[in-house]
Amino acid sequence: MTAREAAQPPYLRIERLKKQFGAFSALKDISLEIFPGEFVCFLGPSGCGKTTLLRAIAGLDIQTSGRIFQADREISDLPASQRDFGIVFQSYALFPNLNVAANVGYGLVSRGLPRREIATRVDDLLKLVGLPDSGLKYPAQLSGGMQQRVALARALALSPGLLLLDEPLSALDARVRAYLRIEIRRLHERLGVTTIMVTHDQEEALTMADRIVVMNEGVIEQVGTPLEVYRKPASAFVADFVGTTNFLPAVVLRPGVARFGSVDLACDIDIQPGPGNDVTLAIRPEDVVVRNVAAGAANSLAVRVADVEFLGSFCRVQLAHDGDKTMVLADFSINVVRDLGVVEGMELLVSLPPDRIRVFPAAAGQP
Amino acid sequence: MFKFKVRGLLLGAAVLAVSALMAVPAFAQKTKITVYSALESDQIGPYKAAFEAANPDVEIAWVRDSTGIITARLLAEKDNPRADVIWGLGASNVSLFDSMDMLQPYTPKGADQIKPNFRSSKNPMAWTGMDAWLAVMCYNTVEGPKKNMPKPTSWADLANPVYKDSIVMPNPASSGTGYQAVYAWLQIMGEKAGWEFMDKLHNNIAVYTHSGSAPCVQAARGERVIGIGFDMRGAREKTAGAPIDLILAKEGSPWDMEATAIVKGTKNLAAAQKLADFAVSKAAYELYGKSYAIVGFPGMNPAPPNYPPSADAAMVNIDLAKMGADRARILAEWTRRYDGKSAPK
Amino acid sequence: MTQAGASTATELPLTRRRLDRDDILMRVGICVFIVWMLVTLILPLWWLLSKSFEGQKGEFVGLANYVQYFSTPSLLASLWNSLFVALLTTAIVLPLAFVYAYALQRSCMRWKGLFQALALIPILAPSLLPAISLIYLFGNQGLLKEWMFGVSVYGPFGIVVSQVFYCFPHALMILLAALSLADSRLYEAADALGASKTRVFFTVTLPGAKYGIISAGFVIFTLVITDFGIAKVIGGRFNVLATDIFKQVIGQQNFQMGAVVGFVLLIPAVVAFMADRIIQRRQVALLSARAVPLVPKPVARRDWTLFAFCAVVGGLIFGILAMAVWASFVTRWPYNLALTLNNYKFGEFDSDGWAAYGNSLELAVWTALIGTVVVFLGAYLLEKTRAFAAGRLLAQFMAMLPMAVPGLVLGLAYIFFFNEKGNPFGFIYATMIILVVNSITHFYTVSHLTAVTALKQLDAEFEAVSASLKVSLFRTMGRVSVPVCLPAVLDISIYLFVNAMTTVSAVIFLYSTDTKLAAVSIINMDESGFTAAAAAMAVAIVATSASVKIAHVLLTRRLERTTQAWRRR
């Protein structure tokens, strides 16, 4: 939580939300607070419940039990038409037989505003999303990216208190996606409207969100800023879902030390050794240090290069430790690879810095 | 906008309701009477027009079908009659209704001047007669010789196997003409011989038609060689150029009379009586004379072209009341023996 | 919405969603729909069933009537006759329609448009038309009488041939749809594996279309076994179930036995319907989203053989229609072949004359107008109402039922139900209203499915967007759903119009003197022996249906052109 957020009461408060489809639990006891003006991403794999949660907030698929408060008003049982939100879908859901201007102005017309006022507002919105001259075109004549921008303009027309985006970029190709990411973020900064976006793409979440809600199988695994979620994943699932992680099975020797294979690693453990104290150590590939590792240095590991995968600006190298028993992935920049002449079969000494190692219970295992 | 939709829907519903009510004729001025009839389709129009011209405050709503159908219907509706008047149904059937106490006796104005056997003998009269028709043989003079089928002169001739599959006659259950033929045969030949005759005839019958006029029309078209059917239709076809001959059988011709009667329990008695009065007026008989050779008005002898001469004399001697009374029994026996070959309905 | 959840330590109460105005209106709408279906379908059928258990005086006699039915040889003979004719027709139509559909879908034959139009002619005509034509062609005075070799056209032969004509387009349309679901990748794979053309046909093409073939078979079977008009005109001595009902109810006023036969007739139709639904569910899985549509390549010998085949079949269909048209202008067949308009002066042959045609036209227009609105609204309510699962399920079930009920049975049920003393809706009896309601109900299911299919193609989230923008659902329906679905709406109206125009079976029981219909008039005129006039009336019906259909095609094309800007590119 930033200082700013700490000072304000939450805009959206979700209390013990549960959603049941017959015997299947889509949401199990979700509680969450979202602050005014935040850009929050619900991130998770398919079926984790993120869209269900979004739709419950919108009132499109009401929860089984639990309460929702928006701006201190309880909206738990209100139908969607009585809540205050705008929504954008993956399929754009633009009305095909109405032109862009009519689409954007759709919600305004039924407010009974005079036509000129509506036209002005529509123009403003179109300018806002970067489509000032497209008013008379039909959705079928626009590209995917443009259609999604129209959908955004339409959702924002009534100045809603909450903007909900349900995987808005998933149907677009990579370049358009990258561009729209920036656009949406820019809009958010400009308007300051509280925004919730559902995505399965962790890159989107990391670049766009103020805070990320990582979900898995109906529960929230972690809520935090992108940095927090990335650097300090709260569970093995988060560590694995966001970015790549090496999971190393180890046994606790004594507080602060765990044994992995034939190596003792110093790390942040404070549990006692004993039966049932198997742990999983997690370290990201980019944190594996290969330069200037002296023999016998703390947390050093003798490995053999098993595979080098060229990924453009860096190489993902598979390192075999303990005679191929465990593989450790490491990301070496091109410079490193070139300087050290890293090739398959080479023997190396790498180090795993203790402060970069996260410890999880062994039961979590490899997700 | 939504309000307009609702209003639009309500308006639409109202329009619908109004036009529906308009489909039901207004009761305001005219009294409407329901008239059950077995009259021919081309008589329905002129008869109604003539009656309503003479009685502008009454309107006829017809329910028209073949004799058998109408009879069955009246019987079925016995306890809750929908008909007001019967105008143009076989007198044998009407007598049956009389014996079942389904009629409202009424002696129409001028009924005493019609021929004696054209009215019920009760006082007040249960029914009045309009006209009589015969069942004749229509023989196609082109197809017959082509198929080496000689022109028949008597009913007995028709049992000849040379006519196999070439004769059509009406189903007596549905057609008055058909029933009168069957009844007459049983009277002429006696019960036992009559049924034997019909057994042989059955082999020659291609199909039992639903209506009494179809046989002669089919013979006229050459579709069949011989039709046993309604005399007037045959005459009309011949006049129109069809290659048929009308033959009155040697043994005598079956006949029936069309009758008018008021149904008991009618709610429009006054209007019904007006129709009964009209039905025995001279104008009415002139109307009947256009379609039938034998009418109930004495002295009137309309002779339509191509109608066989001395038809009166050919009429077999039958008791109409008994014809009606025996109907159920005879039909049951007939159906049991021959119904497999019926045309549908 | 409200579900029983697994219990946790401290439970919050279940959330009950509040209903907004749209919700309430839609639920009321569904309830009204259910009541409508109850009154127009379920209750009349129930009345019919109970009638079959009654004796002459209305007392309950259990299965006595059924026992009597099954022990009457002539009635049972009709049952076998009906089954025989239906099965034979199915056996003939399926291969014919399949090859024809194959030619249209999978070959590069010429003039496909013409052949498709030809094949659809029978839909525009009352079922009586082929029967009348056949009498002129093969009857005792028939043009081609010699070809019959002494077999009479009256009876099973005439019935089967007429039914083949009548059912052909229905089977064709189903098979066309089935054969269009082709994945060219399968064919390319077969090709790459070196399979012979015959082998490919039997292992890829035929199995791919198998659900369509089975479905078409059921449709033909049901159509034939429930048809009344053809059997009436050309059946001769051959009795079938449909005409039996008639004889019992109208001929002998034996309503109880009529009800029994009606129920017996209902059984094969229901069985066929249920079997078809089970098949349909399997069909859905057949085409995956990745399928590549099949574009046929020209193969000269195959294409020309198919062309010849279609020319023969199409020519026969056209020939039957042409015969009826010719016959309607002939003065006195076969003796005076001079052409005349005399047969069109219907007033001379039937008491109602042209009024019957006018009534049919009126019925068709009302049915199309009101029916389209009811169907579309009903489909919209079923698809878009939120929650209220019980109501929607019930309504959905009822919407599918009419397909299982033959027209004759429905008409019969209507007489019983609406004629009953004390029925508050009894006032519609003997008016145009009951005919319109009956027609809408009879043809409901196919219209409903068309509407539902069209609605399903709209984005599923229109309603969510509408709610978030605080716009009423009905406004969105009018501004978006209807305009986008307009082609389907037009399709539904034309379907209802043409069917109401040409129907015989249901209305044969329901018409009154004021509302006699053209199809009934045809039967009456044919009964009286005025076959030429009957042909004329049938031709008049075809001409009307054809004109309206052409207008529909032109209108649809124009619609597509003017809305080109926004329809799927």
What can you see in these coordinates?
The complex is a heterotrimer of chains A (367), B (345) and C (569). With 367 residues, chain A is an alpha+beta fold. Chain A is built from eleven helices and 19 strands. Chain A has helices at residues 3-7, 50-58, 100-104, 106-109, 115-128, 144-156, 174-191, 202-208, 226-231, 236-241, 334-340, and strands spanning 12-21, 24-34, 39-43, 65-70, 73-74, 86-88, 162-166, 194-199, 211-216, 219-224, 246-254, 257-260, 263-266, 278-283, 300-310, 314-321, 326-333, 347-351, 358-361. With 345 residues, chain B is of the alpha/beta class. Chain B contains 14 helices and eleven strands. In chain B, strands 1, 2, 3, 4, 5, 6, 7, 8, 9, 10 and 11 form an eleven-stranded mixed β-sheet that branches. In chain B, 51% of the residues are buried. With 569 residues, chain C is mainly α. Chain C is built from 24 helices and two strands. Chain C has helices spanning 21-52, 64-70, 73-106, 112-119, 128-138, 156-180, 184-192, 197-208, 210-226, 229-234, 241-251, 255-283, 300-328, 354-384, 389-400, 407-419, 432-442, 444-456, 462-468, 473-484, 486-502, 507-510, 518-527, 531-562, and strands spanning 330-332, 336-339. Chain C has a two-stranded antiparallel sheet with strand order 1-2. The longest helix of chain C is centred in the N-terminal third of the chain and has 34 residues, at 73-106. The interface between B and C is large, with 56 and 53 residues.
Largest sheet of chain A: 6 strands, mixed
Strand content of chain A: 25-35%
N-to-C SSE series of chain A? HEEEHEEEHHHHEHEHEEHHEEEEEEEHEE
Number of strands of chain A: 19
Number of strands of chain B: 11
Q: How large is the count of helical segments of chain A? A: 11
- What gap, in angstroms, lies between the N and C termini of chain A? 28 Å
| Tally of contiguous helical segments of chain B | 14
Query: Sheet with the most strands of chain B?
Result: 11 strands, mixed
Strand-residue proportion of chain B: 15-25%
Task: Report the C-alpha radius of gyration of chain A, rounded.
Answer: 25 Å
What kind of assembly state do the chains in view correspond to? heterotrimer
* Average pLDDT level of chain B: 83
Estimated helix fraction of chain B: 40-55%
State mean pLDDT of chain A (0 to 100 scale): 88
**Low-pLDDT segments, ≥5 res of chain B:** 1-5, 23-27
Q: What coarse outline of chain B follows from CA principal-axis ratios? A: globular
| SSE class of chain A | alpha+beta
Distance between the termini of chain B: 55 Å
Low-confidence stretches of chain A: none
